[in-house]
Amino acid sequence: MLGLDPDPRGLWPGYEEQVGDASSPAEAAASAFVWHCKALIDAAGPACVAVKPQLARFELLGAAGWAALEAVIAHAAGSGLLVIADGKRGDIDVSAQAYAGALLGGADSPFGRLDGLRADLATVNPLMGSDAIEPFIGAAREAGGGVLVLVRTSNPGAADFEDLPLADSGAMWERIAMLVDGLGAARVGESGLSDVGAVVGATEPRHLERARELMGSAPFLLPGVGVQGGRVEDLAPAFAPGRAGGLVSASRSIAGAYQAAGGEPAVAARAEAERLRKTAWELSGRVR
Amino acid sequence: MLGLDPDPRGLWPGYEEQVGDASSPAEAAASAFVWHCKALIDAAGPACVAVKPQLARFELLGAAGWAALEAVIAHAAGSGLLVIADGKRGDIDVSAQAYAGALLGGADSPFGRLDGLRADLATVNPLMGSDAIEPFIGAAREAGGGVLVLVRTSNPGAADFEDLPLADSGAMWERIAMLVDGLGAARVGESGLSDVGAVVGATEPRHLERARELMGSAPFLLPGVGVQGGRVEDLAPAFAPGRAGGLVSASRSIAGAYQAAGGEPAVAARAEAERLRKTAWELSGRVR
Question: Which helix (H) or strand (E) covers residue B76, if one does?
Answer without folding.
Answer: helix B62-78
